Amino acid sequence: MSGLVVIGASYAGIEAALSAREAGYAEPVTVVADEAWLPYQRPPLSKDFLLDLVSEQNLILRDGAFFESRRIDLVLGQRVIAIDRQARRVELAGGSRLSFDKLVIATGSHARRLSVAGAELDGVCTLRSVADAIDLKARLGDASEIVVIGGGFIGLEVASSAARLGKKVTVIEAAPRLLERAISAVVSKFLLDAHRAAGVDVRLGETVASMIGNAGGIAGVSLSGGARLRADLVVVGVGGIAADELADAAGLRCSNGIVVDELGRTEAGDIYAVGDCTNHFNRFAGSWIRLESVQNAQDQGRAAGLAIAGHREPYDSVPRFWSDQYDIKLQITGLSARHDHIAIRGSVEQGRFSVFHYKGGKLIAVDGVNRPGDQMAARRLIAMGVSPSPQQAEDPCFDLKSLLRAAQRADA
Q1: 78 has a pLDDT exceeding 80
Q2: Fewer C-beta neighbours within 10 Å, C or N terminus of the chain?
Q3: Class of domain 113-238
Q4: Which residues lie below 8 Å from residue 409, measured CB to CB, with a gap of 6+?
Q5: pLDDT for residue 2
Q6: 4-110+241-308: CATH number
Q7: Cα angle: 122, vertex 125, 130; to 5 degrees
Q8: How is the chain split into domains, by residue range?
Q9: Which secondary structure element, helix H or strand E, spans residue 163, and what is its range?
């Protein structure tokens, strides 16, 4: 039995399988995952799950009956160890093999590890899977002093959750500001102030020299500047690495992820790759890029699934990200790294504002704090290439949607 085989059961893999089936792909569809869990949501793992606001069961995306009704076979708790392109089959760790006509690689990313002494001590954790989250949640209950290494999305979300649980939290960030590569300096400062107001000790421009252990595991962290911090739990959140080992071993082109086109195709025509493990040319970045976001995973998965079913709808979505910390809902549309000018809409002091990023007068990204309406408009503005002037963006009375309506009339 051949058909479509999908390696990986997170957002990208599941979206590819469902989109192919819903678009008319009639052959067998099999999704193989190394986790024994039904496909689940990952964003709540660092937030509501740690706070006990969401149960393990509530994380599940769809139950088994849903996949049965779509004739999608889930093979859970089984790890693919090799892809044989010539024989058109994948080999599982237990020795069994699955043949394929079409293959989707949706293996995601691995948590980046620290290469310092003591990094393997018990109590030094990362957060990528539900198993990681269950372990971290249990450890948080017993911990009192927590060090979070990395001021990115996961690190700050874990810090926020731990602080809300009443823990003493220190965040170590090597860069001069939080989320330096993802958001504006204005939003970075706003988040820094929010964490410090919640009692979190945020140390910028610091790196870890080593982990300090005792007979029971982690006891502290030594910083490069000479300071030592007590810690009975350390959470490392310093980014992810594309899980492209299977593809690389199979001879597929990899460069900071599996290289794919706008349909998710690799250089081997019937093998696709989607989600965090891929590198694609993105017109909004103006370059090749690897994105780790739910939006990218779902939209890229959909493009691949449709292509497998014979429908060409290239992936061309505006990148989007979000993060919840305390009562802050941070939403990001577009990629701001190349900006040369910003405009602020709303009130930073009141905690409801958006930062509009421009490059050569063109709107390329909008960071929003508790202003979802701006984000809805930004998605369409950036996708259509329509730019409010900085003065219009700063004017709270200016209707951003009027530009969209004018552009639609012009195209009619």
Answers
A1: yes
A2: C
A3: alpha beta
A4: none
A5: 87
A6: 3.50.50.60
A7: 120
A8: 4-110+241-308, 113-238, 327-411
A9: helix 153-164
